[in-house]
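Protein modeling request. Please complete all fields; requests missing the sequence field cannot be processed.
Requester role: graduate student
Desired output: 3D structure, token encoding
Chains: 1
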Amino acid sequence: MKSKSHDGGDSVDIESKWRDKWRDAGIFHADPDDREKIFLTVAYPYPSGAMHIGHGRTYTVPDVYARFKRMQGYNVLFPMAWHVTGAPVIGIARRIQRQDPWTLKIYREVHKVPEEELERFSDPEYIVEYFSREYRSVMEDMGYSIDWRREFKTTDPTYSRFIQWQIGKLRDMGLVRKGAHPVKYCPDCENPVGDHDLLEGEGVAINQLTLLKFRMDDSYLVAATFRPETIYGATNLWLNPEEEYVRVRTGGEEWIVSRASLDNLSHQKLDLEVEGDVDPGELIGREVENPVTGENHPILPASFVDPEYATGVVFSVPAHAPADFIALEDLKKNSELLERYGLGDLIKGLEPINVITVEGYGMFPAAEAIQKFGVESQEDERLEDATGELYKVEHAKGVMSSHIPVYGGMKVSEAREVIADELKSEGLADEMYEFAERPVICRCGGRCVVRLMEDQWFMKYSDEEWKEVAHRCLSSMKIIPEEVRANFQYYIDWLNDWACSRRIGLGTRLPWDERWIIEPLTDSTIYMAYYTIAHKLRGMDPEKLDDEFFDSVFLGETGAGDELREEFSYWYPLDWRLSAKDLIGNHLTFHIFHHSAIFPESRWPRGVVVFGMGLLEGNKMSSSKGNVILLRDAIERHGADVVRLFLMSSAEPWQDFDWREKEVIGTRRRIEWFREFGERVSEIWDGELALSELPEFEPESFAGKWMICQLNHRIREATEALESFQTRKAVQEALYLLKKDVDHYMARVDGRVDVEVKMVLAHVLSAWIRLMAPFTPYTAEEMWERYGGEGFVSEAPWPGFREEAISREVQVAEEMVQNTVRDIQEIMKILDARPERVHLYISPPWKWDVLRIASEVGKPDMGAIMGRVSASKVHSNMKEVSEFVRRILRDAGKSEVVEVDEYSVLVDASDYIKSEVGADVVIHRDADYDPENKAKNAVPLKPAIYLET
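Delivered output (949 residues):
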């Protein structure tokens, strides 16, 4: 950032200056010593593209916390590495090789890769090399206090040996198995894919569907469903006559399915063979046999059938499926279709058949749901809402109707599984898997399918004993925000076995089966432990890093040197792990599973902070759609401190933040004001300011005591906020509210320059620069140096607060002064008057007594308050007392009574009040002059006002 120096001299590169100084001094290198430690990590990035402002928030939060704790005297380790495992860069390299226009455009225009570098992107290793350098450069520009000695890539040979040790330990515990499991799969990459491998479809679940076989001659039309129990209410099948259908052979049977479904189905039925085309138009009007009831059902046309979803064949249950009900009604009204397929007589007898009984609904719940939501046609957007609500109600509260054989009276949720299992065991049904949403697109550009992996390795997250230990680990951790703890609990229970290996991609090979590469999420669960020794492994022979070596370092067994074991033991357990909320369902929960299995309880992680998402001018950020601002561009435009401060002040870390250019510019002005304040204080001191040599000091004036009170209050609030990662609240206290306090103090002293004012402002500046150092380190370092701070402000003591200096009486008194000024100005505005003199009448002592009694009663009870007041004889005129009690009754007991010497406070502030209202001010202890009888209106902390013109 180019910035004018404070003395108006030549431009200096402040950011480069302090980066060089920090690096040369090695102040962020963290080694074990006798201090209490803090070890925090943030999810290491996958460097397949340039950093954007969303990444900026992710990595600035831990840096602010690290800087804060370092200034508090802790030994802080904040490391960084590069997660380059997996297939995404393989897909990117392939798209670059084939000169895919979209990919080239993204990397030229969004990621701003120079042409000569882009030419080398056909090599996936070079992509991660290029962007890891880019990431580090931008992180350094942002001023992150990272110990770069511990930097590594997940393809480093020494790291691979660590990962092989980790997965070997889990296999020895029986927590890795081999078997079949449905996974997201990219046919183009010939590889399972995780969420980080996707351009579209992150977080999309895989659902299991039951395939019901409706016989027609020697073939079956195979219809997929979530609700096999509704087979008793089937009236017909739906096919889309505008789409292509085929005959396929699988399991010794001939099935009829849509051609578009083959991509998915063929990866689950590995013996599937296509035998020929089928004209769906010729099937319309023919009948199929219900596999359960044996009844015949007609095949009817429906344009709503999605040929890509499941099998492209749907069976219709109009009593319980709103979409089927309205589709059947629409077809009955469509004379053109009825005539084309000769369905007139066939469709007349089709009526809904009840299967489920649910409280609040009649025989045909679908019809009632249609009516409730006002659905008018198959294209009506409200149809989805009607369907969703009815399905949930029937699943949660429904029972199979009494006329259903065998299952009558059984809960729907139970009958569903029982019926599906029995039908599959009898050969009347099968199963398949399908995405909950489409499309799911790999980073290589290919459309993903669900594949049933037969020869695959899995982490056994389904293991109940492992789940129990993971829950125990979670219960011992701090979770920020606390409300997401329930998400962790849900995912620990919900997680099933996880495919932990791939065929292609970068990464570490399974030590017992080198055909497989350990997938990215599995190799990034306990790498925090590796950070503790990463810098000491550099240059070591990977072959010597065997299981015995890592057992010694991490589990305290014999074999490795004491130095490595002591380094690990000093830093572990991990104090804080920070990552995005969309990773709770995988990475963050895996983090808990793996730590709880491998390490003793004393080494389990202590806390997790979860981040919200980022918006750009109100819209979701997306690199693939070009809707991002690169972090480097933001730094060049605004400066790193402005970027940091905006990202920390716009929202709490767990909330979504919105980058808005106008607000960023406003943040820059705040920093400029802060710098100008330092200059003003320096000018007041005539250039003799030396912050590190300030003596202890207690102001004597009320305004000075108030300013020191507020300074201590802001320090306390900002400190408590940062302890719980509330960066927005911390900035509010440390900058915005403290600025408001300083502005008011400067108005109170009104240009007065004496020893007390100089000392107050110097103490404020000293504390303020240190308060801002975690948020705006470059500005803070420059100001600290300029105004006589010793050493780096990054290593200076965090400003402490004195609880005894935070006086509620002083705060309330000054609030009274400010409120009085506003009241006078409001009256002047209403009366449109410019008085020569303003008279202020303070509240008489008896009103303070009554207020205290009302607070002790603690509730708005007129009788109780009046009884206590009467017994106390605080005032002889009970009519006046009654009127006053009515005035304060509503707020009785809501807050403590803070008594203030109103007269002394107002007299002390009279010059300030005079300057604010433009008139002389007279403070009356008694109503010795009150021509309009205003004094009776005075209440505690709210003087009565009379304007004399």
